[in-house]
Amino acid sequence: MSQQTSILADIPFSLLELAPMRQGSTVGETLHNSLQYAKEADRLGFNRFWFAEHHNMPGIASAATSVLIGYIAGNTQRIRVGAGGIMLPNHAPLVVAEQFGTLESLYPGRIDLGLGRAPGSDQVTSRALNRDTSRAEQFPEEVSELQTLLGPYNGRHAVRAIPGEGTNVPIWLLGSSLFSAQLAAQRGLPYVFAGHFAPRFLYDAIEIYRRDFKPSQVLDKPYVMLGLPLVAADTDEEAQFLGTTSKQRVLALIRGHELWLKPPVETMDGLWSAQEETYVDNFLGLSVIGGPATIKHRLEMIVKELGVNEFIFTNDLYDLDKRKKALQILMEIKQ
């Protein structure tokens, strides 16, 4: 009797990359490691490789998102490369359209544009990026502007994105609250929920998106991608050990410290208070941690419960070889 095919077989797996830096490493070394990681994902058959935009965060080297997309796309063969996402209040829509239109022209059919309305930084850095603090309120209008700039020229608008016009780069809306879910539904756009750092509104956001979805030229039915923190290893015990790297990083985040990747530790006891432990656990509440069987079971349960169409994983392990190993494990459990 043949073994039953996993429900994960038809679910695309993708990766969200923050270009995590180990203390003492250089930006160049970090980005080279991100490329090696992306090449392995490309070889194994992952669907997308997206960079998240963050600023003024020592330990995260993904600030110049569109530059990194070109670097990865130019050195891989098949995998889609994109932004998860561009924080639109930081950028003029015309500049985004020109950058992603250029990328799409160089790597046709492989570029994605995920959009968020958060600054991807603290308030001081946000002001350094953009003096207009009301830009986030203009997010729906600026999404429309981007769609127009990337669409076919209608013979009317005076400002045109060259390159960009007519490329129709796929636009995704990202969110950790209900706002982007509502907007994605209204516009008939694919939606990504940021479960890798903000699990609180997961169920409500997906329910609202599906309930209010209006078909568009882009999509005839809802499409949900879910971001999840991943720690995959050969055994559950090793995964729990490796996962202490992410826990230390979130702990540094809530303390306002620099976000360097730290080696895993045998125990977090003594490193955090009970209150901090609760906060970190809530932050990483959707983490998928374990050996192959545990990972497979957890992802299958999520698919059955939420009906997600695609997963996008953060995989911030300390060791590059362990990161690559996690990718192999993920693809094996799809069988």
From TrEMBL:
<comment type="similarity">
    <text>To bacterial alkanal monooxygenase alpha and beta chains.</text>
</comment>
<feature type="domain" description="Luciferase-like">
    <location>
        <begin position="23"/>
        <end position="309"/>
    </location>
</feature>
<protein>
    <recommendedName>
        <fullName>Luciferase-like monooxygenase</fullName>
    </recommendedName>
</protein>
<dbReference type="GO" id="GO:0005829">
    <property type="term" value="C:cytosol"/>
</dbReference>
<dbReference type="Pfam" id="PF00296">
    <property type="entry name" value="Bac_luciferase"/>
</dbReference>
<dbReference type="InterPro" id="IPR019949">
    <property type="entry name" value="CmoO-like"/>
</dbReference>
<dbReference type="InterPro" id="IPR036661">
    <property type="entry name" value="Luciferase-like_sf"/>
</dbReference>
<dbReference type="GO" id="GO:0016705">
    <property type="term" value="F:oxidoreductase activity, acting on paired donors, with incorporation or reduction of molecular oxygen"/>
</dbReference>
<dbReference type="InterPro" id="IPR050766">
    <property type="entry name" value="Bact_Lucif_Oxidored"/>
</dbReference>
<dbReference type="InterPro" id="IPR011251">
    <property type="entry name" value="Luciferase-like_dom"/>
</dbReference>
